[in-house]
Design a protein that fits this description.
The protein has 711 residues and is of the alpha+beta class. The strands form three sheets. Strands 11, 12, 13, 14, 15, 16, 17 and 18 form an eight-stranded mixed sheet that branches. It has a six-stranded antiparallel sheet with strand order 6-5-10-9-8-7. It is elongated.
């Protein structure tokens, strides 16, 4: 087979380049490594950028091909083959915005037309010039940086391009086509077109890459030339790509290549082969060897046994693909079986690249692609743990002995995978990165175990915090039941509470008539049950009417309106509370069956409120008006609501309240009233918008819906 290309600098991805002539400054700059220290994260190259850069010649856009065609027409002038007809078609297609004849169809027609007029060589030359114009236009900025990263010389660039194209195609296939294509390829096959095979060893059914079905393989000849074998369902696509590649080589590496079509290498329809030959100055600078390398094993300074120990997972294959030399790792797997049969097909199957069989020529054509071989037979039989072991490596052609060297290593991800295949860590050579992968994998698993324990501990802490939050919320809710919201919040925060003066607070005091006699004839539990039933109803009314329950002492039930929240309707709400309390008494009876009778007093005035005590603190009201409210309750009558003159004045401004005046001497001692003012009995409330027959609850509910509280 062919020797290595003198421009490849040591093969796939090599860097010992032999410069082809004095390159231009731009070419030298583009071939230099790109540092990322001064670039932002947005300018950093990624696999997507490399994929887009390769698409510039494998799947160029309609607009790019149209511009390239027009550029070639401008250079040729009237001497261009069929210029007028093609130019009119291109311009018409551009004016129609792609609605008419498509550009890729024009390329195919141009090839057929020029080939009929002047031969296939002229047609190929024309399309290669179109490809050159495409590359010159596209090879700028990030595209140029991406392509420059693929190799430091011509051979490395083209062979790496071959391998990277396969990797990107496999990546697209593994992703299931989820990545949306950004460009519409003009070199994509027409709808319903048949897939075309390729003599380069690629499977005809391999998934098309990035919108086009153009495939190619690069191989170096003994004379230093490069053979590019291309395949596409579009007749024009290989010729355009060949021109683009020759221009890219010249732009990126300053190397001028002579491109000639090799008809003898084309064995199937749809396959096109081009020979890339460096010009004479480049050939001289490259130092192409004129003497064949020695085929004598004596010239090898390393003994085979040493090589087998250094590379335990290698094998050397002859033309029949028999293993004529294997490393110590493979020898341990197959043992004495190699004495009876040495064919690689007996012991391995090809996992990747797909579609490649065990043929010497097929393997050479895919030498730039990573191979993954799976063990299908071992010395321990079908139950041997080594069966199924994958070995990933590279196929290297050795022209001095016309053999193939496979250098690889087990494809493993951890110690469990290693021991599960019957292998040991010592089976992996120290220089092999697989050893680091295994050790790092184990370290990662240990870190994952620690991370899981930390996550479990974190969840436990979070659950404990949630439990604490629930208990804290219970405490806060309990404080809200005892104190007004603002006071409860400040107490929870540990702030000191100072006594506060509150204006226009309406206070309600009540007690049960005859409560002492009830207690004398009932057990304590009966009294507690009676008060619990009655006062629970009162607590519901407090919530509905938004009044504050101050305290309960024995049979006394105290309420304040306008204390916990400023309101223009606190007197009305407290009056409705008193009416609902009297109404509720009729539904509750004492232990002896007699109905409970209450007397209630209301008074509106200024009070002083504050928290008293550290243990079991209480929110208490102080002031002369508090005493007066208590006296209005004392001077009331059973099942009556005695309201002070100040409360009566406020209620009289709200329609619906019915009152009855009392003699002036009924005013409690110490209350200073204006001339003519007296206390009243609150008899009931009727909302003007409801019928008189509605219940008290309905009247109060309607009144609450009409209230407009200040913002």
């Amino acid at each position: 087979m062919a020797s290595r290309c003198p421009f490849s600098g040591g093969g796939f991805g090599g860097y010992a380049a032999a410069s082809a002539g004095p390159p231009s400054a731009s070419a030298t700059a583009s071939a230099a490594p790109v540092t990322s220290g001064t670039r932002s994260s947005d300018d950093a190259l990624s696999l997507r950028h490399l994929s887009d850069a390769i698409s510039t010649f494998k799947a160029p856009t309609e607009d790019a091909v149209r511009k390239a065609l027009l550029a070639v027409f401008d250079e040729d002038g009237d001497d261009c083959f069929s210029r007028d007809a093609l130019l009119r078609a291109v311009k018409k297609e551009g004016e129609n915005g792609g609605a008419g004849c498509q550009v890729h169809t024009l390329l195919d027609e141009a090839y057929d037309t020029i080939a009929a007029e002047s031969g296939e060589n002229e047609a190929s030359l024309f399309l290669r010039r179109v490809g050159e114009a495409l590359a010159k236009e596209a090879c700028v900025g990030r595209v140029r940086r991406a392509l420059s990263s693929m190799g430091s010389d011509v051979g490395a660039f083209l062979t790496c391009l071959d391998g990277v194209s396969d990797v990107l195609a496999e990546r697209e296939e593994e992703s299931g086509g989820e990545e949306e294509e950004d460009v519409a390829s003009v070199l994509a096959p027409p709808e319903g077109a048949k897939e075309v095979g390729c003599t380069c060893g690629r499977s005809p059914t391999r998934r098309r890459y990035k919108g086009g079905d153009l495939t190619f393989a690069c191989d170096a000849t003994a004379g230093g030339d490069l053979l590019l074998r291309m395949s596409s369902s579009r007749p024009a696509a290989p010729h355009v790509a060949a021109g683009s590649l020759s221009a890219l080589v010249r732009v990126l590496h300053g190397t001028r290549m002579d491109v000639v079509r090799e008809y003898e290498e084309e064995k199937e329809a749809g396959n096109v082969t081009f020979r890339f030959t460096p010009s004479e100055p480049e050939r001289q600078l490259a130092g192409i060897p004129t003497k064949r390398p020695s085929t004598s094993p004596a010239d090898l300074p390393m003994a085979p046994s040493t090589f087998c120990r250094a590379f335990p997972w290698h094998m050397i294959l002859d033309r029949r693909l028999d293993m004529i030399q294997v490393g110590t790792g493979l020898l341990r797997l197959f043992g004495s079986m190699l004495r009876s049969c040495r064919s690689i097909a007996t012991y391995f199957s090809v996992v990747r690249p797909r579609g490649v069989g065990f043929r010497f020529e097929d393997i050479l054509m895919r030498a730039n692609t990573a191979f993954v071989l799976a063990v299908k037979k071992a010395s321990g039989g079908d139950g041997d743990p080594a069966v199924g072991l994958e070995i990933k490596g590279q196929m290297v052609h050795c022209p001095e002995s016309d053999t193939i060297l496979f250098v690889g290593s087990p494809f493993l991800d951890g110690l469990e995978g290693l021991t599960g295949r019957g292998l040991f860590l010592s089976d992996i050579p120290i220089h092999d990165a697989t050893r680091d992968v295994i050790l790092v994998g184990e370290q990662s698993r240990a870190q994952d175990g620690l991370r899981r324990r930390m996550d479990k501990l974190k969840r436990s802490i979070e659950e404990a915090n949630l439990a604490v939050d629930k208990e804290r919320q219970k405490n806060v809710s309990l404080l809200h039941l005892i104190f007004p919201p603002d006071i409860a919040r400040r107490l929870w925060l540990g702030e000191s509470i100072e006594a506060t003066r509150h204006e226009d607070v309406t206070m309600l005091f009540s007690d049960i008539v005859g409560f002492t006699s009830i207690c004398s004839t009932a057990t304590p539990m009966m009294v507690v049950d009676m008060l619990e039933s009655l006062y629970s109803k009162f607590d519901i009314y407090c919530g509905q009417l938004d009044v504050y329950k101050v305290e309960t002492i024995g049979d006394a039930y105290c309420v304040a309106g306008g204390l916990h929240r400023r309101s223009r309707s606190n007197a009305q709400r407290t009056a409705w509370m008193a009416l609902r309390m009297i109404e509720a008494c009729s539904d509750h009876k004492a232990h002896d069956g007699r109905p409970i009778r209450m007397r209630i007093g209301l008074h509106t005035g200024t009070v002083l409120a504050g928290v008293v005590g550290k243990k079991m603190p209480r929110y208490c009201l102080f002031g002369h008006n508090v005493s007066m409210a208590n006296k209005f309750e004392s001077t009331s009558e059973p099942l009556k609501i005695n309201i002070s003159p100040t409360t009566h004045q406020v209620l009289s401004e709200w329609p619906g309240f019915h009152t009855e005046p009392r003699p002036r001497h009924c005013l409690p001692q110490g209350f200073f009233a204006e001339e003519g003012a007296t206390c009243h009995f609150l008899l009931g409330y009727k909302n003007p918008d409801l019928s008189p027959g509605a219940t008290l609850e309905q009247h109060v509910t309607a009144a609450l819906s009409e209230l407009e509280e200040p913002q």
